[in-house]
Amino acid sequence: MAAAFGLAGLSLMGIPPSGGFVAKCLLLTAAVIEGYPWLAATILAGGLLAGGYVFRVIDTALAIPAVPVAPRRPVPRRLELAALALAVAAVLLGLVPLRPFGLLQIGRDGLAMAGLP
């Protein structure tokens, strides 16, 4: 479970090669080009806060407890695999960053003809 959280954390922090990196890069570029430095600073601060949170949770999850902990009910394997699959997908999206852009263009010509942006 810690591995899935760590991989998903990469995307939350915006570290390459995750899909979150591509998204944050596009948002930062747009914010700077459009003249919103406060928005760019907010996006960067969010990545740093996410990093602090992820590292804190991972540190706690992997630490050896000083006092024995009572056993807990194990997480079902299917839930662990679902979380891991989503985290791996977030990282793999970073390897093909511009591929999903084609989906955003579907139907765009029809909107432009109707006078919509």
Distance between the termini: 43 Å
- Helix percentage: 55-70%
- Count of helical stretches: 6
Shape: flat
Describe the structure.
This protein is mostly helical. The chain is about 70% helix and about 0% strand. It contains six helices and no strands. It has helices spanning about 1-15, 20-35, 35-60, 75-95, 100-105, 110-115. The termini are far apart. The mean pLDDT is about 80.
How is this structure best summarized?
The protein has 117 residues and is mainly α.
Output the keywords:
single chain; 117 residues; mainly alpha
How is the topology of this model organized?
Layout: H1 2-13, H2 19-33, H3 37-62, H4 77-93, H5 101-104, H6 108-113
Helix pairs in contact: 1-3, 1-4, 2-3
